[in-house]
């Protein structure tokens, strides 16, 4: 086997392991988040990570309508309507209208939704700090290669 082919095979094996670890880590992340939500006495919270990210999107862009959320999250409007209605019913968001447009509904976070948003934001900040410390071992040049690889990987995965 040619050296380049062997390198490709090793990279592919690492790529598959990475995807499996990532999937497992995603499950642990939501479990950890839910345990904190429970400790904070936030009731009726869904165990769906997309729901957390919808709350995050609303918190970053409020007031925002279904179409805006769908575009920012790259999800269907139907999905956002379903999630939005559930969040409304559970008391995590409020529906409002703008003075100049009575037809369009916009979402804002309720106090309980803000607690979830702030908790999620805090966890992301901690994770970013941890990731930055991990990257400290790489040179600027190595990080440029890693960046290009991750960008190309994302494009490759999205195009499948």
What percent strand? 5-15%
Widest sheet: strand order? 1-2
Shape: elongated
The Cα radius of gyration reads 20 Å
Q: Give the biggest beta sheet.
A: 2 strands, antiparallel
In N-to-C order, the SSE pattern is HHHHEEHH
| Tally of helical segments | 6
Q: What class would the helix/strand composition place it in?
A: mainly alpha
Instruction: Please state the average pLDDT score.
Output: 89
Termini distance? 28 Å
Short description:
The chain has 6 helices and 2 strands.
Written overview of the protein:
The protein is mainly alpha-helical. The mean pLDDT is 89. A hairpin with a 2-residue loop joins strand 1 and strand 2. The protein has helices at residues 3-39, 49-61, 66-73, 77-90, 111-135, 140-158, and strands at residues 93-98, 101-109. The two termini are 28 Å apart. A two-stranded antiparallel sheet has the order 1-2. It is elongated, with a radius of gyration of 20 Å.
